[in-house]
Amino acid sequence: MEKVACALTIAGTDPSGGAGIHADLKTFQELKSYGMSVITSVVAQNTTGVQALHHVPLEMIEQQLYSVISDMPVHAFKTGMIANIDMMKVIAKKIPSIAAPYVMDPVMVATSGDPLIEEQARDFLRKELLPLTALVTPNIPEAEFLIGRKVETTDDMKKAARSIVHDLGAGAALVKGGHLDGEAVDFLYDGTTIYSFSAKRINTKNTHGTGCTYSAAITAYLSQRLSLYEAVDKAKHFVTKAIKGAFPIGAGNGPTNHWAIREKGVFQ
Ligand SMILES: Nc1ncnc2c1ncn2[C@@H]1O[C@H](COP(=O)(O)OP(=O)(O)OP(=O)(O)O)[C@@H](O)[C@H]1O
Ligand SMILES: Cc1ncc(COP(=O)(O)O)c(N)n1
């Protein structure tokens, strides 16, 4: 009998529906993987920023992980917002028991600039979680933090991707160029080859959740047993469409459109 591809996200929430767990589950659904989620923090946020944070107790994070892993198949999983070291320790302990590719979106701040993880946790993420990944997907400021130097050109991006794999031990690195000018180009390094994925830059401020959506799409495709290259290639196409069709809703950076690859939605 054919088995459905199952994808898991371990991340924080966004009640306005554009980022975090919500973006991940919408993306899994859209790409036809069965979506599951473990919530790390409940975040009161919207398109203008983060208003409040509530961290789920450690035992409850552990319990959620147990509930999923002990009963459900996981063919690929991702992490997003993990706010502090204690949460990271709980998650790191469980990762070896999930025999599936691990995609890390090293979330540090929201598009609005609000911090989503504690300062001290960044080092733990780099030293302890990064070596467990099949792929890490930093944007430019995240890549700069990981390697400890400036990333200002496409050449710097490629060097950063190599460093993240060879010096920090990630399985592969996808350095995203959303924060540079010009083409929206990303570089994937898989330990042997650098690949580039490029799209025309879309002139929009509605980019809330793009990083979450992109890493969720990669996770969905990996859960369907696509190669890393194919998964990133198809996910880039998906996120570009989602940005092109992004909604001008909310007073700040509007959310990406997760159904943009199919029919139009219902508009007022
Ligand atoms: N204006 C844009 N037009 C086209 N593609 C874009 C644009 N902005 C970002 N991208 C693409 O979207 C993806 C996410 O990249 P980005 O660098 O914005 O990640 P991020 O900073 O983690 O996202 P977020 O803004 O959600 O924090 C990448 O493929 C990037 O090239
Ligand atoms: C729970 C959660 N996780 C991640 C992000 C980053 O998404 P973005 O940078 O696109 O706002 C976010 N805003 N909220």
TrEMBL record:
Entry EC no(s): 2.7.1.49, 2.7.4.7
Keyword Nucleotide-binding: yes
One record GO biological process: thiamine biosynthetic process
Record key words, sorted: ATP-binding, Kinase, Nucleotide-binding, Thiamine biosynthesis, Transferase
Gene3D superfamilies recorded: 3.40.1190.20
Pathway of action: Cofactor biosynthesis; thiamine diphosphate biosynthesis; 4-amino-2-methyl-5-diphosphomethylpyrimidine from 5-amino-1-(5-phospho-D-ribosyl)imidazole: step 3/3; Cofactor biosynthesis; thiamine diphosphate biosynthesis; 4-amino-2-methyl-5-diphosphomethylpyrimidine from 5-amino-1-(5-phospho-D-ribosyl)imidazole: step 2/3
SUPFAM superfamilies: Ribokinase-like
Molecular function GO terms recorded: ATP binding; hydroxymethylpyrimidine kinase activity; phosphomethylpyrimidine kinase activity
Protein name: Hydroxymethylpyrimidine/phosphomethylpyrimidine kinase
A Gene Ontology cellular-component term: cytosol
Catalysed reaction equations from the record: 4-amino-2-methyl-5-(phosphooxymethyl)pyrimidine + ATP = 4-amino-2-methyl-5-(diphosphooxymethyl)pyrimidine + ADP; 4-amino-5-hydroxymethyl-2-methylpyrimidine + ATP = 4-amino-2-methyl-5-(phosphooxymethyl)pyrimidine + ADP + H(+)
Species: Oceanobacillus halophilus
